[in-house]
Automatic annotation (TrEMBL):
<dbReference type="GO" id="GO:0016730">
    <property type="term" value="F:oxidoreductase activity, acting on iron-sulfur proteins as donors"/>
</dbReference>
<dbReference type="Pfam" id="PF02943">
    <property type="entry name" value="FeThRed_B"/>
</dbReference>
<keyword id="KW-0676">Redox-active center</keyword>
<dbReference type="GO" id="GO:0051539">
    <property type="term" value="F:4 iron, 4 sulfur cluster binding"/>
</dbReference>
<keyword id="KW-0479">Metal-binding</keyword>
<dbReference type="InterPro" id="IPR004209">
    <property type="entry name" value="FTR_bsu"/>
</dbReference>
<comment type="similarity">
    <text>Belongs to the ferredoxin thioredoxin reductase beta subunit family.</text>
</comment>
<protein>
    <recommendedName>
        <fullName>Ferredoxin-thioredoxin reductase catalytic chain, chloroplastic</fullName>
        <ecNumber>1.8.7.2</ecNumber>
    </recommendedName>
</protein>
<keyword id="KW-0004">4Fe-4S</keyword>
<dbReference type="GO" id="GO:0103012">
    <property type="term" value="F:ferredoxin-thioredoxin reductase activity"/>
</dbReference>
<keyword id="KW-0408">Iron</keyword>
<dbReference type="InterPro" id="IPR036644">
    <property type="entry name" value="FTR_bsu_sf"/>
</dbReference>
<keyword id="KW-0560">Oxidoreductase</keyword>
<dbReference type="GO" id="GO:0046872">
    <property type="term" value="F:metal ion binding"/>
</dbReference>
<keyword id="KW-1015">Disulfide bond</keyword>
<comment type="subunit">
    <text>Heterodimer of subunit A (variable subunit) and subunit B (catalytic subunit). Heterodimeric FTR forms a complex with ferredoxin and thioredoxin.</text>
</comment>
<comment type="function">
    <text>Catalytic subunit of the ferredoxin-thioredoxin reductase (FTR), which catalyzes the two-electron reduction of thioredoxins by the electrons provided by reduced ferredoxin.</text>
</comment>
Amino acid sequence: MNLQALSPCTFRVSPFISPPKTSRHRSVIRARVEPSEKSVEIMRKFSEQYARKSGTYFCVDKGVTSVVIKGLAEHKDSLGAPLCPCRHYDDKHAEAGQGFWNCPCVPMRERKECHCMLFLTPDNDFAGQDQTISTDEIKASTANL
Ligand code: SF4
């Protein structure tokens, strides 16, 4: 059996791959854009403050936290609002304008439900003990993505 065929890397889409020519695929696979340092810092500070305010904790794997913070920052740059990065939208601009999924989203504000695992309640098996994350931690844990 060809082990390479089973490698998870086989299924990964390079962030630098050009989207296929058909418009149907163009909306699904996009080149990943690196968010600005300013927006990453804004979303990092927001995440720390909101974790403290809501009594939630970051994931024991700070790589998860880092990817979500960068996803929020990317949306802040491109849409002007921190639209949740863990969902699919047919029209991101319309969703950002509507506000339901702008972080902290309504499910988080109302029920402390964060499906991105950015804000975890203490009883969650994946909750760590930190409500802080440094810029260096974000850089280090996302350097190879
Ligand atoms: S699920 Fe809600 S609270 Fe969690 S990152 Fe997305 S928008 Fe923010």
